[in-house]
Amino acid sequence: MSEIFETPLLNELQRDSTDPLAEPIVVRNAPEQIVERLVTAVALGVYVPGQALPPERELASLLGVSRATVREALRRMTESGFIEQRRGRNGGSFVLEGWRPSSADLIRRHLLPNWSRFEALFDARQLLEPVIAATAARRRGDGDVAALSQALVDYREATDREESRVADERLHRAVAESTHNPVLVGLSAQIRTRISLELGAEPYTPEIRRVAAVQHGMLAEAVIEQDPGRAHSIALEHFGLTEGLVRDLVARVGEAATRESDG
Amino acid sequence: MSEIFETPLLNELQRDSTDPLAEPIVVRNAPEQIVERLVTAVALGVYVPGQALPPERELASLLGVSRATVREALRRMTESGFIEQRRGRNGGSFVLEGWRPSSADLIRRHLLPNWSRFEALFDARQLLEPVIAATAARRRGDGDVAALSQALVDYREATDREESRVADERLHRAVAESTHNPVLVGLSAQIRTRISLELGAEPYTPEIRRVAAVQHGMLAEAVIEQDPGRAHSIALEHFGLTEGLVRDLVARVGEAATRESDG
DNA sequence: TATTTATGGTCTGTGGACCAGACCTTATAC
DNA sequence: GTATAAGGTCTGGTCCACAGACCATAAATA
Lengths: 263, 263
Known about the structure:
The structure is a homodimer of 263-residue chains.
Chain A: H1 30-43, H2 56-63, H3 67-79, E1 83-86, E2 92-95, H4 103-111, H5 115-139, H6 142-157, H7 161-177, H8 182-199, H9 206-224, H10 228-262
Antiparallel strand pairs in A: 1-2
Helix pairs in contact in A: 1-3, 2-3, 4-10, 5-8, 5-9, 5-10, 6-7, 6-9, 7-8, 7-9, 9-10
Chain A binds a DNA duplex (30 and 30 nucleotides) through residues 27, 29-31, 55-57, 65-69, 71-72, 74, 85-93.
Domain HTH gntR-type (chains A, B): 28-98
GO molecular function, one term (chains A, B): DNA binding
Protein name (chains A, B): FadR family transcriptional regulator
């Protein structure tokens, strides 16, 4: 009887419909899932452009699949221009620099058509992250302080966009982990990943990085000093900033696109 | 290039690890997913014990799979004692009454071993649902009032545990839907489903149902009257009640289990 | 009572996904 | 110049899902 409770619990954050039987079953085959994991890993900064993914044989054993399957995943990623495979000793699968479409292009082709989904995602983030931040401030333990300070230092020392992204991810994860609740950690990571993935390059201009650095500093500080109220309001403002930026960007590009199609 | 953005976005709310490559790839095959959907549908009250699921051929076409695959899923569910299949005209796959293990049994065999996961889930719920409720109060439109009042009436008119569960689900969904944010609706539904699934029977004693009815009434009212602060605090209290109940239950059964194994 | 019909139950052949593992090719390190 | 660490190729096998035909049963209905 009880094995039915062992079914991996439903994991679909956003099935479009509300009726469990309304949508077709999709068997997510292995290569597809592997691509997703690898793209996620890059989005989260585990591998940065120029770096090689683990060798095929190692990936196969890490992921518990055959090498043929890993190769199929890598083949698709090569085809998409996401990685480049090089042979010989010191070869490997290298994450390409320019795999993200240009900002304007991305927005026109991806962001605009799916704008309502993004809006909901940003909106949810701005509602949920402050709660997570406040909870983190309330619950952080002594062990969390080190991770928070370290992430903050990394962020301040980041010199380019890529390093900023990675440090940003670490800092927000450190905050989420200070809640000591894996569900919240997972939720926060999932929101970040989805935004990072779908958005590609977040608009990390030097100016924005400066503002964000200040906010990150204040956020980490509020958590360290166990001040939930401040953590909440800083997070609110911080995530509002990003949302505002993207909104402006989309508006500008959207207008441009409209003008073009009119002309 | 852009097709890589079309990968169904990562959906795993709670992968245990934080490293995308640390865990094996699991190909969730079709029957497994179908079982999950059907169990979910029952957990959400779409089908109640005694009722028949749709006929196999219809399920196959709804879910976009072959009948053989549906049959495999139903075979597993029959094996687990979840449904009973009857042949002939007016036959079908009937949800069994007693498919949930008894409370104490369930707790001993399932809740105790996974207690930390539940704790995190309840904790997250108590943090997130009040925000959702407050947001619902802030954003509810005229169209939401009808759904809220109707759900409330259903809840009050519910006579047995099963009807209460269904009405409860509807009411909380109506609240979530008043936020007009599909991400929040999905999140709330997912938390509810997981708790409902893993918990099996929530402790719906008549007494609890009376208290919950009052709270539900106040919650719906606060949302209808667009009072975010009240909605927040009522939700906090309401979800605290459930958590407290389960916590007590587990403590009692846990003690009993300890005494037994000592004796 | 006989027939129709809506359901579950059974079978067969086909294609594709994934696996295990051996072996080939290339480019670098030593 | 050789050893080595990577990617590239091939084979044979297993299992899963599909399509579709057909069988068996029990209730509704004529």
